[in-house]
Known about the structure:
- By secondary structure, this protein is mainly alpha-helical.
- It has a domain at 302-477 and 493-531.
- Helix content is 68%, strand content 3%.
- The chain contains 21 helices and 4 strands.
- It has helices at residues 9-16, 34-49, 59-74, 106-132, 137-153, 160-178, 185-216, 221-228, 236-253, 263-269, 272-297, 302-325, 334-360, 365-389, 404-407, 409-423, 429-444, 448-473, 480-486, 497-515, 518-521; strands spanning 2-4, 25-27, 84-88, 100-104.
- The strands form 2 sheets. It has a two-stranded antiparallel ribbon. Strands 3-4 form a two-stranded antiparallel sheet.
- Helix 14 (365-389) runs antiparallel to helix 17 (429-444).
- It starts with a strand and ends in a 10-residue tail after the last helix.
Amino acid sequence: MTVLQPLTSTAIAAADTGAGAGSLVQSVDWLAIAPVVITASVGLLVLVLDLFVPERRKPLLGWISVAGLAAATATLLPLRAGDRSTFCLTGPGTADPAACSYAADHFALVVQFLVLGGALVTALLSVTAVREARMPAGEYWFLLLSSAAGAALLPASRDLATLIVALEVASLPAFALVGMRRGDRLSSEAALKFFLSSVTATAVSLMGVSFVYAATGSLHLTQVADRLGNVPGQLDTLAMAGVALTLVGFAFKTAAVPFHFWVPDTYVGAPLPVAGYLSVIGKAVGFTGLILVTVIAFPAYSDVWGPALAVLAALTMTLGNAAALRQSADRPGGAVRLLAWSSVGQAGYLLVPIAAAAYAGRDQIGSTVAYALMYAAVNLGAFAVAALVARTKPLHRLADYRGLYAESPLAALAMAFFLLCLAGLPPGIIGLFAKVTVFRSAVDAGLGWLAVVMAVNVVVALYYYLRWTALLFRTPEGDAAQEGAQQGAQPRTGTPWPVTAAIVLTAATALVLSGAPQLVLRFATGSLFPL
């Protein structure tokens, strides 16, 4: 099947010089884009079915969504060679095998696995949450799948226009998901704050992209990289400003300081599965975008973004851990806020290898990918256990986890394992090794001061992770039942099996990675990108 290629500036120029209309027609590699297409198609199918499915059968929409995400994840297997691309510039004078808008290389496939796997776990957690909270099923599943499709598109995007579109497709449905609990003041406030701050960041990024295009005449990342190295002197300031502004939108999605202020209120106000989704998939979107624009498109200006990202990494991990230390055990929403601030601190660690790439080359990016895979599994697992506890203790206090081992030993052990992974302590070996690779990337790049800041922050974070872990095994208070009544909790018997499946899936993944960390860490040994 053939389609009309988007009329980029290069294609238009080729057509104007007599290259012929044939240069605008090409084949589409449907297998390469299958993960994105399947996810988006299932989202549209759910939206249509919602019009015809009776209310009592609405849970069926959730299971269709789960099946669609599982199928999209499975389509990554035939692509594991990482040698496919599509929507490329063609024709006399425009042929460039590297100038493609979509590339299913190893980097894209690893991040797509993270995104689709994380969305699948979120869907499992949401099956019960949508029904019990009486959220509109059709809208919820359509928005979740749409956001996942945009997040899966972004790592394969290889031009600035597709990157921005993918960023917005991933973000816009997330605003509505945060505010899905209708009539809830906290949910509405969180959605509005998230929306306004994100739109501002995106507007700044679009201005930056326009500056980059004005300076280079191209939107394809590889062509931008080539032309930024030879920018005329009168356009150097414009190009530098474009590089800096383009990074803003992606830095916002990573919750890097000072673009982090939306995180705690958004996580507390959002439905718990959505908060988990934002903490993992939202960050994956931001870090993927940062990697693509810095390492592939803007290496010529590494002296601009390298030091800036190093400073952002230090500020982000320090502020995130400091705020997490201040969370009270008895404050409503304290557990979710601690996970929110913890995610900010973890974002600081994830920024370190990207900053190191400015000094030691793109091979350092593997450390960010390895760390992101570890973080995705264990952080979603922590949110899964939190969803289980919230069934009887909906205030989300840290104190609600006191004595969890006596009530649910397996859930408590799973939560302890997730927290130890985040802290980087045994038996969470994968967390320890991931932190070591990030630390090593800073040392190899000559960023000794950043390695010291990271080491101090890792020690500081041990306090709140271990405090929460200790609560799980303490003797439960005698008036726990009375506290539950005061919280307004409705007794719920049994644990929904989708929630159990989400906990088991994330725990099994973290255990496998801890037993064989080379499955992840091998991505830290070399470049994920074709040279």
